[in-house]
Amino acid sequence: MSSINSNENVSARRKLLGGMVSAAALLGVSAAGAAAGATTNAVTPPAAPEQAAPEELFELARLRSYKARRSSSWDRTGGNDDWVRVEAGKTATLLDVTGAGVITHLWFTINSPDPMHLKNLVLRAWWDGEKTPSIEVPIGDFFGLGLGEYFTYQSALVAVAPMKALNAYFKMPFSSAARLTLSNEGPIRTDSLYFAIDYVTLRKLPANLGRFHAQYRQAAPCVATPSAINGKNLNGAHNYVFLEAAGKGHFVGVTQAVVQNKDGWFGEGDDMMFIDGDPLPTINGTGTEDYYNGAWDFYGQPFGFQHNGAPYMVTPEKLGGRYCLYRWHTESPIAFEKSIRVTIEHGADNDRSDDFYSAAFWYQTEPHAAFPALPSVEARKPKAPSKS
Asked: Which end of the chain has less neighbouring CB within 10 Å, N or C?
C-alpha cells in the first residue's frame, strides 16, 4: 500500500512540474529557469569602474627608506645640562655632516642676558661644500621676530611656541654635505643655547632639487624719494628690496618688521616682483596689507594664519608703531628661470621713511649670487623712531 501511494505521489509531482514548464514556455521562460523559480528578464547593473584611491590616503602609512637623525645640544655626560654656551664673538656648530640628506626641522630656545640677542645671533648654513653661506640671517628675523622681541604665533613654515621656542619646517636638501652654525656677534655671552636639528639621510637626492636660501636686508630708515612728487611709480626704482637672486629657482616667502617714523598708515606701498629681467613688474600688487593677504590696514588687529599674518602690532599708525609680518607662497612659489627681484614700496610711491627689516626665503640652483654685506650689530638694532 505504501508503494502504491509513493508511485501516485511521484506521478502527481511530475504532472505539476510539467504544468509549470508548459506555463513557462508560454511566457518565454526556460524550463530550467521555471523549475528553479528564476526570472531572466531582470537587468543586472554594470560593474562600477575601478577608481584610483587618492594618494593622501596612503601618505602617512607609506613606509620610508631614509634614516632619521638629529643633531642637538644634549649633555654628552648623560646629565641634564642640555645646552651650550656661546661666548661673545664665538660660533657654535649646530650640524656638520657629509652625504646626502634633507633637514626637516629646526628648534631653538635661548637664555641670554643680551636684550638684543635675537638680532645679534646670526644663523648661517652651507650646502655641499660651498664657500659662501646660503643662509645668513639674524635668528630673530629668520623666525619672524624682526624687532628683537618674542611673541607667540603659528604658521605653515615658522612658529614660535611658549616659552621662547623657535621652530622652522623648511625642507633643506643637500647632496654631499651640510653645515649650520650660530654666531654670537653681540657683546654679551649667550648663557644657554638649546637646539635640535632634525634631518634624514639618503643614498642620494633625486634630480631637480634647488637648495634652500635665506637672506637678510634692512633699510633703517628707507629713504623717501623725489619721485613721490608726481605720485607715480611704474618701475620700482626706489622700492625696498627683499631679494635679488640669479639662477633658476622659486621664491617662497618673507618675514618683515617695521618701525614707523611718523603717524599714518605706512602700508600704501605695492609689492613688485621682476622676473627674468622684465623691466616692469612681472607681478604687481595693490598695497602692503594686501601682499600680506589682509585688507584695510589690517584694521589694527593682529592675526596669524598658515600662509600669512601680522601677528605683532604695537600702536599701529602712530609714530613708533611696530609691526611683524609674514607671507608664504607655498600654494604657488614664484618661479624664475634666470633671475628675480622682489621689492615693495615704502609708502605710496616711496614717500615714507620708516624702518624696514626683512628675511627672504627661496630655493635655487647653485652657485647663488653674492649676498649684501650683513649690517653691523649696532645698525641691526631697532632704534627709537625718528620723525621724518
From this structure: N
Cell digits for 227?
Answer: 619721485
Alpha-carbon distance 99 to 19, whole Å? 86
- The vertex-148 CA angle with 145 and 150, nearest 5°, equals 60
Domain match, 226 and 354 both: yes
- Sequence-distant (6+) residues with CB within 8 A of 69 are 97, 101, 198, 199, 200, 201
Residue 321 has which C-alpha cell?
Answer: 608703531
Helix (H), strand (E), coil (C) string for 204-258: CCCCCCCEEEEEEEEECCCCCCHHHHCCCCCCCCCCEEEEEEECCEEEEEEEEEE
Q: Cβ neighbours of residue 146 under 8 Å, at least 6 residues apart? A: 140, 255, 256, 257, 324, 357, 358, 359
Q: How far is CA 67 from CA 102, 198, 201, 205, in A?
A: 10, 11, 5, 13
pLDDT along the chain (388 residues), means of 10: 44 45 40 44 69 90 96 96 98 98 98 98 98 98 98 98 97 98 98 98 96 98 75 88 98 98 95 97 97 96 97 97 98 98 95 97 97 97 78
**Residues in contact with 34: Cβ distance below 8 Å, sequence separation at least 6, in sequence order:** 20, 21, 23, 24
Q: DSSP letters along 111-143, please?
A: E-S-TTHHHHEEEEEEETT-SS-SEEEEHHHHT
Q: How far apart are CA 370 and CA 365, in angstroms?
A: 14
Number of structural domains the chain divides into: 2
Q: How far apart are CA 13 and CA 143, in angstroms?
A: 91
274 and 291, same domain (yes or no): yes
Instruction: Name the pTM for this structure.
Output: 0.85
| Cell matching residue 386 | 625718528
Q: Are residues 166 and 227 in the same domain?
A: no
What is the domain-level CATH number for residue 300? 2.60.120.1390
Q: Phi first, then psi: what are they for 312, rounded to 5°? A: -130, 120
The domain of 169 spans 67-202
